Amino acid sequence: MLKIILALAGNPNAGKTTLFNALTGARQHVGNYPGVTVERKEGDYHKDDFNAVVVDLPGTYSLTAYSEEEVVARDFLANEKPAVVINILDAANLERNLYLTCQLLELKVPLVVALNMMDVAKDRGMEIDIDKLSAFLGVPVLPIVARSSRGLDDLMAAVKAQAAGRLAPPDPAKVRISYGDDIDQTLLTMTGLIRDSGLLKGKYPARWIAVKIVENDEMLINEVKAADPELGARLLHEAELVAEHLMQTFDTYPEAVIADHRYGFIKGILKRGIITHRYDENRLYTSDRIDKVLTNRFAGPLLMLAVLFSIYQITFSLSALPVSWVAAVFGWLGGVLDAGLTDGPLKSMLISGVIDGVGGVLGFVPLIMLMFLCIAILEDSGYLARVAFMMDRIFRIFGLHGSSVMAFIVSGGIAGGCAVPGVMAARTLRSPKERMATLLTVPFMNCGAKLPIMALLIGAFFAEHQAMYMFGFTLFSWVVALVAAKILRLTVLRGAPTPFVMELPPYRFPTFKGLLIHTWERTWQYIKKAGTVILAISILLWAMMTYPGLSPEKKAAFVQEKEQISARYKTGSEERERLLKEVEGRRGAAALQHSIAGRIGVALEKVTWLSGFDWRTNIALLGGFAAKEVVVSTLGTAYSMGDVDPEAAASLGQRLARDAAWSPLVALSALLFMAFYAPCFVTVVCIAREAGSWKWAFFSIGYSTTFAFILSTGVYQVGRFLGF
Ligand code: GDP
Ligand code: MG
Q1: Predicted confidence band of residue 9 (pLDDT cuts 50, 70, 90)
Q2: Is residue 669 one of the residues assigned to a domain?
Q3: Based on the domain organization, do 321 and 466 belong to the same domain?
Q4: CA 446 – CA 676 distance, rounded (Å)
Q5: Overall domain count for the chain
Q6: Do 106 and 211 meet the contact criterion of CB atoms below 8 Å apart?
């Protein structure tokens, strides 16, 4: 019996898996595509004499080579040549979904379009003229509701007809999207060359190859070069000519022009009465009605600020007590070790390196957890997408793209994110310049690792207005990021903006389980990091702060001084205890200053005195380049080793507040530096990978550190001048 390959392609969440399950039932197996982590799902379908192997392709918005999913989907279509491809569309989001359809049409795969979620479309009062849509696309379009298996028989009948070749092939002129005069001319020339040489014939259509080369699709360009280096060079030359021309005339890239025209093509189709709304304005469905208020031009942003501010209020007020409990546990643990172990390197490492270092980071777990919970509520309810939507208007002004918003929010734009996934999230940006601008500015956001430092310094120096300060810092980080983006886009990254479609998911009540899972996943990541990376760095920094110890003569001098005190005062007298502690503190400080880290820190003071940082702060900031969490743990270690404080049990915050090297002004300067200096090491590696070169990674370190230093120095010097 003949068995055809039937592939399911579509955007994420269009309902592919639901349709796949409905078609194949239990007859499925899951594997991986060779060499990648993308899941490959296959199942059997049969009905009467019709048999098919159904393959659930990874969900993609496009067929470029920006992500592993897109590459997998594309390779599958080109290499395995499925007899039929069902392109499943979310009828409620036609415009965005049709973007992939355009590309499938260009790839000339035997297509059947399944218009899914017809129930949702109907609830929203949309009526879709299916025959008209089918006529415009030149392929069969079948309405279905995958979740309740409605319309599947008709769909499969169309698939069967397509497989049997009984359908008329689509009119090539109809699906040929025009990309504007310049590109069209180039495509014509290139297509001719490709046809004549039979380049990659049978694998890709000639015009598709040409479009991809103009789009600067690296993977395909390499494939072409491997197949025919000489022709490859000629084609690339053509593409470069048109790219240069577009740069001169439109100040933009071919990729952007091509994306523009695809959306234009889709808009053109949809405008011709394919969708009609049955309901009038005042009978919008619930989500739309909520959005009328929440994304209102004026009320929306105000409400957004109120929501974000209350998150800070809630997390700080509710977490104060549990944070003090965790600190007490670590304090107790340190006391136990102090009493139970004899003095020596092991004791010093455990107390100063492990407990003070890692404990300082773990101490903020309750705060981080509450913050994550609030974010999870925003995310799961659908409000976060509205935040991105509202921010989009502002983003355009600064030369960024609506899709950048998510990268900023993920990086900590609201609070407690991480620049690493943020940098990854920038992948969805099509324009290389907008992507670079995003990569270079997302590390300015308040990531989860900066929160403990802020909580520490703000708690120690500006305790009365904690939430206010945190909120202010978050806003300020946005201002800095946006202004930096604008400057980059006006200088090293000049270029025109690309068009943008943004989908707003309907509002939902978050489920309790979903919230718990989301909160816990992120909190656990934070704890794991403290237990592994940060533990290792803490111990390393402890060693750098301990060795080489004081010279024997110096050590002997301190011992002698102590003996003199002991001899002069009565055993157990208050005066004697105080003096002994004072000597011990001086000894610790001298040893720290003498250590490797201490010397580096002291050497840096030559520059950092300008912004008010002493050598101990320098050590911490250097450590922060490995991971920002380390700033707190290193300060903890530095101030416990060189402790001159008579009350040794004082918390780090109290120690700083009392230390002569610190003041509210220094704290402010340190906060500013810490917020904007070089991204952490892992982020830098990611930037290098995403940007495709280390040049940009070093640029990122250099420009942000320079900026941070100028900013903190400016604030410190002006503050001193004004007498703070
Ligand atoms: P995939 O990402 O393309 O594999 O999408 P899924 O099959 O996982 O579906 C995404 C969500 O849409 C799931 O919650 C499905 O239950 C839901 N869904 C799928 N088809 C329909 C449909 O026809 N109507 C409605 N209302 N929901 C659907
Ligand atoms: Mg799926």
Answers
A1: very high
A2: no
A3: yes
A4: 9
A5: 3
A6: yes
Ligand 2 centroid, distance to 57 Cα (angstroms): 8
Examine the pLDDT at 373 and tell me if it is beyond 90.
Answer: no
pLDDT tens track for 186-224: 999 999 999 999 999 889 999 999 999 999 888 899 999
Three-state SS at 8: strand
Cα–Cα distance for residue pair 534/537, rounded to 1 Å: 5
Which residue type sits at 499? P
CATH assignment at residue 169: 3.40.50.300
Q: What is the CATH number of the domain that holds 235?
A: 1.10.287.1770
Same domain, 386 and 461: yes
The verdict on 393 and 464 lying in the same domain is yes
Angle in degrees, CA 428, 434, 440, rounded to 5:
95
The DSSP letter of residue 502 is: -
Out of 18, 41, 115, 122, give the residue to mutate to test ligand 1, the one with the largest number of ligand atoms within 8 Å of its CB. 18
Mean pLDDT computed over every residue of the chain: 84
| Distance, CA of 115 to CA of 134 (rounded, Å) | 11
CB atoms near residue 698 (< 10 Å): 14
Say if residue 212 is in the same domain as residue 361: no
Secondary structure (3-state) at 9? strand
Pocket of ligand 1 (CB under 6 A): 10, 12-18, 59, 116-117, 119-120, 145-147
Residue 7 has pLDDT above 70, yes or no: yes
Q: Whose alpha carbon is nearest atom 9 of ligand 1?
A: 15
Which of 277, 303, 326 is the last residue in one of the domains? Answer: 277
In a domain, 540, yes or no: no
Largest CA distance in the chain: 109
Distance CA 237, CA 235 (A): 5
Contact 38, 58 (CB under 8 A): yes
Q: Which residue has the least CA distance to atom 25 on ligand 1?
A: 117
Nearest atom, ligand 1, residue 12 CA: 2
Q: Residue 140 belongs to what domain range?
A: 2-174
Residues 263 and 393 both lie in one domain = no
Q: What is the pTM of this model?
A: 0.55
Answer yes or no: do 155 and 233 share one domain: no
Residues 349 and 448 in one domain: yes
Q: What pLDDT does residue 279 have?
A: 54
Rounded distance, CA 672 to CA 683, Å?
19
Closest by Cα among 265, 334, 333, 272 to 103: 265
Residue 715's nearest CA partner among 671, 683, 654 is: 671
d(CA 592, CA 542): 10
The side-by-side arrangement of strands in the sheet containing 28-32 is 28-32, 39-47, 50-56, 3-10, 84-90, 111-116, 141-143
Q: Where are any strands of DSSP class E within 23-162?
A: 28-32, 39-47, 50-56, 84-90, 111-116, 126-128, 141-143
pLDDT at residue number 282: 44
69-112 confidence digits (pLDDT tens): 888 899 999 999 999 999 999 998 898 899 999 999 999 999 99
Quote the pLDDT of residue 280. Answer: 47
Whether 650 and 555 have beta carbons less than 8 Å apart is answered as no
Q: What is the pLDDT of residues 272-321, one digit of tens each?
A: 778 877 654 444 567 777 888 888 888 888 898 888 778 877 877 888 78
Omega cis (within 30) before 548: yes
Helix (H, G, I), strand (E, B) or coil at 600: helix
Query: Atom 6, ligand 1: which residue's CA is nearest?
Result: 15
pLDDT at 113 (0 to 100): 97
- Distance, in Å, from the CA atom of 350 to the CA atom of 229, rounded to the nearest integer, reads 62
Which of 221, 247, 277 represents a domain boundary (last residue)? Answer: 277
Compute the distance from residue 24 Cα to the ligand 2 centre, in Å.
14
Q: Which two tokens stand for residue 50?
A: 């019709």
113 within 8 A of 87, measured Cβ to Cβ: yes
Same domain, 111 and 151: yes
Residue 511 is classified by DSSP as P
Q: Which pair of tokens denotes residue 275?
A: 């969708």
